[in-house]
Amino acid sequence: MDIGVEHLIDGMEGIAYMTAADGTILSIGRQNWNRFARDNDGHGLVDGNGVVGRNMFDFISGSDVRETYSKFFAAIVGGRAQRARLYSRCDSPSVKRELWIAITPIRNGSSVERLLIQSLTLSETVRPPIDLFDFKAMLEKTRKEKALPILGMCSYCQHIRYPCGSTDEDGHWIEAEDYYRRGGNADVRISHGICPSCFDQQELSLAS
């Protein structure tokens, strides 16, 4: 990796990282990446430990979400789109965080060799802690208790499919706060997917 490119990424706004065309993470913008990791109990990820050299698709939960990103990558690498931009949420237990995620090709002549991915924070709102967004604890609970009911969560807007155990045919999507107000709890297994409104939005996210 050209050291000049590494310095460029490090100086970018938001969380920025570069991948190969197949999604392998090549470099990160360390300054903002490390700050975000430390602020969100991700000390093991500082300086890209356990991340650089791996494929970004290893870190995406939900087959339909991976499929969406794969579609974006294929369209950009194949020249059918110039870039992609999508709305997303990245909540922690005590913070509601709204983002724009931009995917931009880095070209060598006519071919796309790398992709720059940049997450820009639109807003952060402090709130009372919500256990559902303590993903490390939720994952550990899932490993220990296999019989927990399944709760759908949209990977983009992080709305909850209510009631617990429902499908898109018989449930509806609500904010996590409303889920708790209606008697919900964190004794569940999270199944990441895409709610209908975010699915429609992702279909419009590629720019030609």
How is the biggest beta sheet arranged? 6 strands, antiparallel
CATH uppermost class of the largest domain: Alpha Beta
Instruction: Give the percentage of residues in beta strands.
Output: 25-35%
Instruction: Please tell me the total number of domains.
Output: 2
Structural Rg = 18 Å
Query: Ends: how far apart?
Result: 28 Å
Instruction: Look at the structure and name the CATH superfamily of the largest domain.
Output: PAS domain
| Shape by Cα distribution | globular
Helix coverage percent: 25-40%
In spatial order, strands of the major sheet run 2-1-5-4-3-10
Secondary-structure element string: HEEHHEEEHEEEHEHE
Stretches where pLDDT is under 50 for at least 5 consecutive residues are none
Q: Averaging pLDDT over every residue, what do you get?
A: 89
Total strands: the figure is 10
CATH topology of the largest domain: Beta-Lactamase
Number of helices: 6
Explain how this protein is built:
The chain has a six-stranded antiparallel β-sheet with strand order 2-1-5-4-3-10. The chain has a two-stranded parallel ribbon with strand order 6-9. Strands 7-8 form a two-stranded antiparallel ribbon. 23% of the residues are buried. The protein has two domains: 3-127 and 197-207, PAS domain (Beta-Lactamase, 2-Layer Sandwich); 131-195, no CATH class. The mean pLDDT is 89. The protein has six helices and ten strands, in the order H-E-E-H-H-E-E-E-H-E-E-E-H-E-H-E. It has helices at 3-10, 30-39, 63-77, 135-144, 176-181, 196-202, and strands at 15-20, 25-28, 83-89, 95-108, 111-126, 150-154, 160-162, 172-174, 189-193, 206-207. A hairpin with a 4-residue loop joins strand 1 (15-20) and strand 2 (25-28). By secondary structure, the chain is of the alpha+beta class. The longest helix is centred in the middle third of the chain and has 15 residues, at 63-77.
